[in-house]
Amino acid sequence: MHAQFPDQAMLDALQKRILREPDCLPGCAQISEMQLAINARSLTIELQVHAQQAVAVPLPAQYRQWFPGRVLVDDEIAEGLFRGRDGKLWLYAGKGIHHIVLSGRVPPLKNFFLPLPLKPHRVAISSQGWLVEGVHEHQVADRQLQFTRKNAGNKSQAAAEIEQDALPPFVQLERTLQLGVDWRLVTRVRRITPADSAIALEIPLLPGESVLTPGVRVERDKVLVNMLPRQTQMLWHSSLQKQEKIDLQAADTDLWAETWRVDASPIWHLRTSGIAVVHHQDRQGRWLPEWRPWPGEKVSLTITRPEGVPGQTLTLDKSRLHIQPGRRAMQVTLVLYLRSSQGGQHAITLPEKAELQAVKIDGISQPVRMKGRQLTLPVKPGRQEVSIVWRQTQDIENFFKTPQVDLHMPGVNSQINLTLGEDRWILFTAGPRFGPAVLFWGVLAILVVMAIALGRIHFTPLRTWQWLLLLIGLSQIPMAGALLVVAWLVALGARGTKNPGEIRYFNAAQIALGVSTLAALLLFLAIKQGLLGAPDMQITGNQSSAFNLNWYQDRIAAELPRATVVSVPLLYYRLAMLAWSLWLAAALLNWLQWGWGCFARGDLWRRSAPKEKRQRSLLVKKKETE
Q: pTM score, two decimals?
């Protein structure tokens, strides 16, 4: 096979180089001056074109509107002319300055438009019998020119020359008043007639209206609307001067129909008079009164601002206070969930000896300093989360109270979280009602009652105080194990009061006592091992535990609620359990000795009697019955 030269890649590169757009686009050509002369029969346009390099220049012509019959370039017939699919005329112009002349008959229409795709810097108009719109002060033109034929002297002759024109332009004018902190007006002009021709209108402004949208021309308190063909709408925004009364009156014209809407903020009170409202709400159910007047009809809007009701502008939706005490200092974090209707500042009072660490609003650190105990927070409108972290040089005490914080405002949903170390023995808690409770003291009251009841049993060697000490130690194990130990001691005492002959199923009872003795001894060993762990004070309530305490209060005053915890070092618990273990070891020796005497009273095990002895005993019983 022979290689093809040039290959397709080289051909594509050459094509791309040849068809590459000039670097000067879109400013390769400019029209410095345009002179237009129009009379009853002809239209002549002279252009001064400056081309930086050879390029196609769009000319002011439009098929089916006005198209030149002759085009001269530097006094010679133009050769490089091209009409696009959109009906526009293009001319290939070489590099340099060119004088271009377009001439032709005017179309037999009442009005027509002339687009200016390459807008000239200066336009001069000479008109006879035609009204030309689209040129403003300093000879600056719009994107198109609108031509309207003036009334001819001989109407019958004019009617014969002029063909049937298209439908006159007709648009929908929509004004939406937006009454908020600032007053705005949104005006929309929508085309109703077919978009095959240009539209030039003058829309009057409302009293106090100032157009803000750039590129919109205003003359004599009127907006000059110049819509190109196939342009369906035009929109502009304006500012509106605040006034107590606004009068809206539909223009007496057949060029447009009007629609009025008022979008009033709740800070304004609106009263209307005049024609009835067509719609009170929009499709989303938002209040948006709408009027559709006939020409000449009127609506009066009376707008007042209601006086504000005195009350607070800042709301505390939730607060969370987290305290983590240490041996020398404690770390405190206060999180506030605020909702404000206006910006400003709010001050809170922190506890004494508080060292501010950080202040964050919505996760962003803020350069806020304290003045004494006062901390001033910046508040913005809307919702915000404020996090305040400080440190206090305060040791953990046996009688601990959460810090005193004054928020200077009421609130709801207050939470307090206290995280204690594992080296503290919590004895008592107090604070908001919905919080932790130490249930051990209620259990202790029940144990006292049980000890008094068990102390009245005469066949056990334990007194009331001994039962109480035993039950207090057994409270650190599951209830089933504690009941087993109590049942074991009572069962041994009951065994010691009866002879073997009085006990049915003697051997089975002995086996049960032996098994329960082994189980009780194992439980005592487990208690001694468990004494090395943490005390079970049965702390519960609001998802609290022995080292994590939580309080909640639905409504609070200016100051945050305070919680109290009574605790001692865990060493006290270790010493108490050591003393209990020593007492239990000494008492258990006596109880085992007493228990063995009860277990072995009369006989340890009942053997089976010989066959003859059993028959003799049966005969004796039979005679006794006879």
A: 0.52
Question: Can you tell me which residue has the tokens 């000490």?
Answer: 469
DSSP letters for 4-66:
PSS-HHHHHHHHHHHTPPPTTTTSSEEEEEEEEEE-SSEEEEEEEEEESSSEEEEEEEETTTB
Q: Residue 471: in which H helix or E strand, if any?
A: helix 464-474
Handedness of CA 565, 571, 575, 581 (dihedral sign): positive
First to last CA, the chain: 137
Interstrand relation of 314-325 and 411-419 (parallel, antiparallel or unpaired): parallel
Residue 119's Cα: distance from chain center in Å?
Answer: 49
Reported for 192-196, long-range contacts at CB under 8 A and 24+ positions apart, including other chains, are 192/257, 193/167, 193/168, 193/169, 194/166, 194/167, 195/229, 195/230, 195/231, 195/232, 196/166, 196/229, 196/230
H or E element, residue 618: helix 611-625
Question: Which among 405, 399, 406, 458 has a CA at the least distance from the CA of 429?
Answer: 399
Integer angstrom CA distances of residue 375 from 148, 344, 346, 357: 73, 14, 8, 12
Adjacent-strand bridge partners of 447: none
Cα–Cα dist 333/326, whole Å: 14
- pLDDT per residue as tens digits for the range 231-249: 889 999 999 999 999 999 9
Token pair in block for residue 94:
């070489």
Instruction: Report which DSSP code applies to 261.
Output: E
Q: 312 or 502, which is more confident?
A: 312
Computed over every residue of the chain, the mean pLDDT equals 83
Distance CA 216, CA 212 (A): 8
pLDDT of residue 161: 46
Contact between 601 and 502 under an 8 Å Cβ cutoff? The reply is no
Mean pLDDT of 107-114: 83
Q: Are 88 and 58 in contact (CB under 8 A)?
A: yes
Residue 333: predicted pLDDT? 92
For residue 574, is pLDDT > 80?
Answer: yes
Query: Looking at the DSSP assignment, which residues form a beta bridge with residue 219?
Result: 222
Contact call for residues 199 and 191 (beta carbons, < 8 A):
yes
Give the containing element (helix H, strand E) for 379.
Answer: strand 374-379
Is residue 368 exposed (0-12), middle (13-18) or buried (19+ Cβ within 10 Å)? Answer: middle
Coil, strand or helix at 112: strand
